[in-house]
Design brief:
The protein has five helices and four strands; from the N terminus they run H-H-H-E-H-E-E-H-E. It is an alpha+beta fold. A four-stranded antiparallel sheet has the order 2-3-1-4. The longest helix has 14 residues, at about 35-45. The radius of gyration is 20 Å and the shape is elongated.
Length: about 150
């Protein structure tokens, strides 16, 4: 998709605040509200704007334990990988699942209330998934930077 400077300004402002009104957005980028709305609709239709979300403060929402888990499968191929994807999709604590290169096959980002909740998840859900050979956990001690904004 070809983006001009106005599209880039729109995307940047929407990433900063997706609740901005169309009138405020138009004023920010120097376009009429109708032109702004038309451009945003095109960006949505193209799929570049994937969705609008609300980011919660994890601590205030009751989540005190974040982990990254490397998962190694016993078997590889299309079916075991698809089965793993389907299983992970049903576990709400898994925030992200990445198919990666290296010693592990997947990298998961997991949010739980606390360490006992994480232990429960590992023992009764993740370890019990078919074809999971090994799990390696890194616990997040603190976070210095966490961005959702992409540079356009």
């Amino acid at each position: 998709m070809n983006l001009d400077s106005k599209d880039i300004q729109l995307l940047d402002k929407l990433q900063e605040n997706s609740r901005i009104t169309n009138t405020e957005l138009a004023r920010h980028v120097g376009l009429s509200p109708s032109s702004t709305l038309e451009r945003v609709k095109k960006l949505e239709t193209s799929g570049l704007i994937d969705k609008y979300i609300t980011l919660l403060n994890p601590r205030l929402a009751g989540y005190g334990c974040f982990t990254y888990v490397e998962v190694k499968l016993a078997r590889h191929g299309e079916t075991p990988v698809e089965d793993f994807f389907k299983s992970i999709a049903d576990i709400p604590e898994v925030l992200e699942c990445h198919h990666i290169t290296g010693e592990a096959d997947f990298l998961l980002k997991i949010a739980t209330k606390d360490i006992p909740s994480y232990e429960e998840l590992i023992l009764h859900q993740l370890s019990a998934l078919p074809n999971v050979q090994n799990l390696k956990t890194s616990v997040v001690l603190s976070t210095f930077k966490q961005e959702t904004r992409l540079v356009i």
